[in-house]
Amino acid sequence: MPAEKETKSLGLLALAGLTPYQPKDDEEYMNDAQMEHFRQILKAWRNQLREEVDRTVTHMKDEAANFPDPVDRAAQEEEFSLELRTRDRERKLIKKIEKTLKRIEEDDFGFCDQCGIEIGIRRLEARPTADLCIDCKTMAEIKEKQLQG
């Protein structure tokens, strides 16, 4: 799973035409250059998701057919249902990206919502919408598992 997240992160960077951010030794955390780096990643990601939505709408319009065979109709409906579920998840992700871009504008990006410490450049490269540090996220996941029983 970590390799998958790393690949996804590298895909986002490639999409944005960026390389992973290399902080300098004396560089302040979440300075203007770092903020701009993540702003570009998030905007490129949001644009890619919006293009997918447009493609889905076009695909569904073009492929919609009233098949006389019930099996063919059911297969098409299932395909469309899967696409719509994926787009719904992406719609939620777009909202989270928008929220993160707003945090960048408000200079509130890169710090944990719960404890206030730095989230870290590498974690943000892997998950640009992260709003919890790794420790707080781990604790939240443990609590969630305990509640689920």
UniProtKB/TrEMBL annotation:
<keyword id="KW-0862">Zinc</keyword>
<keyword id="KW-0963">Cytoplasm</keyword>
<dbReference type="InterPro" id="IPR020458">
    <property type="entry name" value="Znf_DskA_TraR_CS"/>
</dbReference>
<dbReference type="InterPro" id="IPR048489">
    <property type="entry name" value="DksA_N"/>
</dbReference>
<feature type="domain" description="Zinc finger DksA/TraR C4-type">
    <location>
        <begin position="108"/>
        <end position="138"/>
    </location>
</feature>
<keyword id="KW-0863">Zinc-finger</keyword>
<dbReference type="Pfam" id="PF01258">
    <property type="entry name" value="zf-dskA_traR"/>
</dbReference>
<feature type="binding site">
    <location>
        <position position="115"/>
    </location>
    <ligand>
        <name>Zn(2+)</name>
    </ligand>
</feature>
<feature type="zinc finger region" description="dksA C4-type">
    <location>
        <begin position="112"/>
        <end position="136"/>
    </location>
</feature>
<keyword id="KW-0479">Metal-binding</keyword>
<comment type="subunit">
    <text>Interacts directly with the RNA polymerase.</text>
</comment>
<dbReference type="Pfam" id="PF21157">
    <property type="entry name" value="DksA_N"/>
</dbReference>
<comment type="similarity">
    <text>Belongs to the DksA family.</text>
</comment>
<dbReference type="InterPro" id="IPR037187">
    <property type="entry name" value="DnaK_N"/>
</dbReference>
<dbReference type="InterPro" id="IPR000962">
    <property type="entry name" value="Znf_DskA_TraR"/>
</dbReference>
<dbReference type="GO" id="GO:0010468">
    <property type="term" value="P:regulation of gene expression"/>
</dbReference>
<feature type="binding site">
    <location>
        <position position="112"/>
    </location>
    <ligand>
        <name>Zn(2+)</name>
    </ligand>
</feature>
<feature type="binding site">
    <location>
        <position position="133"/>
    </location>
    <ligand>
        <name>Zn(2+)</name>
    </ligand>
</feature>
<dbReference type="GO" id="GO:0008270">
    <property type="term" value="F:zinc ion binding"/>
</dbReference>
<feature type="domain" description="DnaK suppressor protein DksA N-terminal">
    <location>
        <begin position="34"/>
        <end position="104"/>
    </location>
</feature>
<protein>
    <recommendedName>
        <fullName>RNA polymerase-binding transcription factor DksA</fullName>
    </recommendedName>
</protein>
<feature type="binding site">
    <location>
        <position position="136"/>
    </location>
    <ligand>
        <name>Zn(2+)</name>
    </ligand>
</feature>
<comment type="function">
    <text>Transcription factor that acts by binding directly to the RNA polymerase (RNAP). Required for negative regulation of rRNA expression and positive regulation of several amino acid biosynthesis promoters. Also required for regulation of fis expression.</text>
</comment>
<dbReference type="InterPro" id="IPR012784">
    <property type="entry name" value="DksA_RNA_pol-bd"/>
</dbReference>
<dbReference type="GO" id="GO:0005737">
    <property type="term" value="C:cytoplasm"/>
</dbReference>
